Amino acid sequence: MLEAFVDALWKHKDDDRGWILIWDAMYLSDGNRLVESEATWCGTTVEAVEAVKQIAASTPLKEIYIGAGLRGKKHGKSRRGGSKDVSGVCGLWVEIDIKGPAHSGKNYPPDEKAAQDILNASGLKPTIVLNSGHGLQAWWLFTDCLYFDSAKERDEFQRLESQWQKTLAAHAEELGGWAVDPTSDLARVLRVPGTVNHKIQELPVQVQLVGDEGDRYVDVSDFEDRLVPYEESTESTFMVGGNHGGPITIDENANPMVEKLEALKTASRKFKLSWDRKRTDFHDQSASSYCMSMSFFAAEAGWVDQEIVDLLISWRRKENESLKLDRPEWYCDYTVEYSTIPKARRLVARSISLEELTSEETQKDSPDEIRKAISNFFQAEIGALIQHGEENSRWSLEMVDDRNIELGTSEQIWKIDHCRGRLSEKDIELPETLKKVQWIQIVKRMQKHIKRLENPEAGDRMVTIREWVDDYLQSTPAVYSSTSEEGWQPAISHRCPFIRHDQGEHGFVYLHASHFREWLEQHHKEKVELSALHDMLRLYKFERKNVRVDPLTKSYWRYSLATFSFIDSMGVRDEGLDHAY
């Protein structure tokens, strides 16, 4: 089942082109808060299948997913890349949640039959359907991989995928007033058959294939005739410079108002240079780059959408560029990420917010005002800046949609390059021109106005980690081993601690952080983020070490037996006692 699924998705992938993402994650018992995740990058379907098997065998409680799109490059163990990093796809997809304990917030389809009726209404039978345990995931696979040779090609497919899901959502509404959540981002990960869904941890369910593999589709043209009619946006989500919504007319003979154009050319030297196509500071000299620049200045000056559309059409006609008359979404569609005018308005909102957050003269000083400015700056709805613990704190951004973005330690939060990487993992990009001093001012504003302290009773973490390790090794005795790998095998297989006296002057004791964290939650009722636990272990001079006993490789933390006197009293298991587990 697993092999057939992965092979169906990516058997036409070129081995040397693109990376298959296998993403595993572990959540707390509420099924929402992510405490551990890791990316595995695979060049072939064989590697992908093996990765899924190893993850499932090593940690039964982990959720396992596969990327809907190939990535052009690896992004390390902690990142899975964003939509802009996707280099190819194998088809279209949709995820239909079914109403129940796992999905109760909306009017989702009541059962599997209703979800299947939505798929049937599309008129094109999916190639593969999975029952994820709490819904259906469907794939319409192409006869060959579709690779993107440009950002434009990727954006065009993104629009097709989005419109295909809107089509299914329209069928769902018509059939029963049911909801289908959008999952069209190209960086989406979906579940893998044969693995287990632990969204409700007391009721784990297996992810299964439904029915036999269906037909494949030659190309995207098979879907275009079945899409719901494209609807132009009539309302803006950003209100910068007045009301700029309303229907848009695309007229090849359009021209901007002469008075407004001349006034803006006089007021802004950069706008005039963009209009004259003489920006020597642009690395990208494409027409799209100039259109974005002019849209920014026009939006900043208070022009409405139609006026900016007319401006862009006039300029493209003047420069003998394609007018894009058949692509109104390129000009102005607030449901499409790449659309020029909405993107320009987001940049204006960000520019205004940056000024508000970094200027000493700003009048905005209430938490709600700062939160709004922060959200406009990050171009994402921010709820709070969370400080985890009063000493040796870790920091994270809490989003309104319940996501949590880890920013790191009290030292790391001030480092713009570090935070840029953490935010980029969640598709939040900081401006390239943002200065270090500006980032420091933004952090100060967040700490002053929207900070929330959690777990202040954590106390001295060096004492805490010592007490925890002591208790852990007393209740989970380590396997004693000299040089024999057979002595480590049972411990590694079960992620339990073990001792090696053949290393260093005094030997080392090894422990597995994830197993330690699970033990803390069970025995001490302590819910500690895995990253925070890693920092506490580093604080007490633990060092990370990969341990391999074929075919297993696991990441352990070790410390010298000479470092801590309390180790002398800990429990120890005899070497090789596999039955003890």
Can you put this structure into words, describing what you see?
Helices cover 36% and strands 20% of the residues. The protein has 4 domains: 2-224, RepB DNA-primase, N-terminal domain (Alpha-Beta Plaits), CATH 3.30.70; 258-350, no CATH class; 361-457, no CATH class; 461-580, no CATH class. Mean pLDDT is 81; it is low at 29-35, 231-245 and 564-581. The protein is built from 18 helices and 21 strands. It starts with a helix and ends in an 8-residue tail after the last strand. Helix 8 packs antiparallel against helix 9 and helix 11 (340-358) packs across helix 12 (367-378). The protein is α+β, with helices and mostly antiparallel strands and 581 residues long. The longest helix is centred in the first third of the chain and has 26 residues, at 151-176. The strands form 5 sheets. The protein has a 6-stranded mixed β-sheet with strand order 19-20-18-17-16-21. Strands 4-5-7-6-11 form a 5-stranded antiparallel β-sheet, sandwiched between helices. A hairpin with a 5-residue loop joins strand 12 and strand 13 (394-399). It has helices spanning 2-10, 45-58, 112-121, 151-176, 221-224, 258-267, 269-275, 287-300, 305-318, 328-331, 340-358, 367-378, 416-424, 436-449, 461-475, 485-493, 513-523, 530-539; strands at residues 20-27, 34-42, 63-67, 69-71, 86-97, 128-131, 135-147, 189-191, 196-197, 205-206, 208-209, 382-388, 394-399, 404-409, 451-454, 478-481, 498-500, 508-511, 543-549, 552-560, 572-573.
